[in-house]
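Page 42, continued from yesterday. The earlier attempt failed because a stray header line got pasted into the input along with the sequence. Redoing it now with the clean sequence only.
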Amino acid sequence: QVQLVESGGGLVQAGGSLRLSCAASGRTFRDYAMGWFRQAPGKEREFVASISWRGENYADSVKGRFSISRDNAKNTVYLQMNSLKPEDTAVYYCAARFEGSSGYVYWGRGTQVTVSS
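This time it went through. Structure tokens are written below.
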């Protein structure tokens, strides 16, 4: 079992930056690929970024602006978000899946990111 807790959300002006963190419980954090997803009001949850032994992957909408990283010693995954746009406003969720699998099995409760114009 892995528990995920996101933090770092908030209100920021367009063009600004935020860094989200996701702290994971458990001693096998390095065995999991990690991802960030988001859900805007009235929209479905969408993929943002992931990091695994294969490397990093990003949604086209955030490429060049967002960066995912992880610190296995701290059981934490980060999402650095730069050049934020109002359309980035959403609840951001952290998720974990077993390396080599396709389905995310553990999810955090989310952190709100609001970008004002």
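Notes: The chain has no helices and eleven strands.
Reminder to self: strip header lines before submitting.
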